[in-house]
Amino acid sequence: MVALGVIVTGTVAGAMAAGMPEGAATPLIGVVSLVAWGVLYGGRMVGGDLVDVMRGQSRR
Known about the structure:
Layout lengths: L1 H16 L4 H20 L5 H9 L5
Helix pairs in contact: 1-2
């Protein structure tokens, strides 16, 4: 989870430091986030499980 946060935050900081317009940075950040999610977690964590983790709940 921390690795994903670092990747997304780094993408935002890099896009802003490179001077990308906000309209171009937003889709880039979304794509990088989805790709990083897929690489880091693959099929191990379902999106609904992530919401539960963030809320501190468990479905099991």
